[in-house]
């Protein structure tokens, strides 16, 4: 006679076995961590249709605050619409290299009521009222990026000041940003802790310092075009105790004194100074190898152009002197990174 055993008991009375567990017996926190290993589309189209328990867990706010929906330029518009209809709790959205931004954002506004972050990456031809519509629908939005977006109307940039809770803003390459608008953004977005205005020329150093003056206690990231930046800005940045990222393009007036001023910033993790033509390479190398001022960084990139003298450069580049002789007398790009120094020929 065959005996059917309960899976939670043993067929041998003298032994005991733990009850068999299923995935639904896992703690909810662990199930959430498993779901977060999946793609957002797998969660919204598959996971939520498995059972009521999985749907309830997958629809929790703790899941959706970590998910980001990325609309690439290869996605068909009608599929994007179908996906968004299944994401009512979506908080983070990124749109890449598209010219149908207005249609996508119209669908988002119709089906997603909890948006906090919108990143438009290299998109084109947005409507002049796009940002105004976002303000009306999502007044508490914290992240807005319109970096490298072409043919963006001036009104979009001026409407940014209506986001009172904005914490991160990227308007790099904007042809309309000027000192007056930057000041209005600074005043009207008091919680702004991350700013990217790279490749925006003619922003005065005084205006940048004024922006920093009210954010020394919480500024985390700054990316600027350095055509008007000197050591003064670095001296002021050295007072920003929470600064983690600093990127300055074309910083032709920065000297080694400005770099040294950043030594006391224990919070700094990413430092990039491009085309820093005034930096004295020997002193920079000495700081890197002897004082280890960059040891807390996760990424380091400092570049300038120098006329190569093999004997002088051979002392501190990670190259033998004979390897450098092919560059002798040539103007080359010299790069300091986390692993040492690199040289590459420059056409200019």
Main features:
single chain; 348 residues; alpha/beta; twelve-stranded mixed beta sheet; 15 helices; 17% strand; globular; disordered N terminus
Strand content: 15-25%
* Integer average pLDDT: 87
Oligomer: single chain
Number of helices: 15
Shape: globular
Q: What is the terminal separation in angstroms?
A: 91 Å
SS-based class:
alpha/beta
> What is the total tally of β strands?
12
**Strand neighbour order, sheet with most strands:** 1-2-3-4-5-6-7-8-9-10-11-12
Order of helices and strands: HHHHEHEHEHEHEHEHEHEHEHEHHEE
Using only C-alpha atoms, the radius of gyration works out to 27 Å
Low-confidence stretches: 1-11
Share of helical residues: 25-40%
How does the major sheet shape up? 12 strands, mixed
Protein topology:
Layout: H1 28-35, H2 40-45, H3 52-58, H4 61-64, E1 68-71, H5 77-85, E2 92-96, H6 101-111, E3 117-121, H7 130-137, E4 143-145, H8 154-158, E5 168-170, H9 179-188, E6 194-197, H10 205-213, E7 221-225, H11 231-237, E8 245-249, H12 256-260, E9 270-273, H13 281-291, E10 299-307, H14 310-314, H15 321-324, E11 331-337, E12 340-345
Parallel strand pairs: 1-2, 2-3, 3-4, 4-5, 5-6, 6-7, 7-8, 8-9, 9-10
Antiparallel strand pairs: 10-11, 11-12
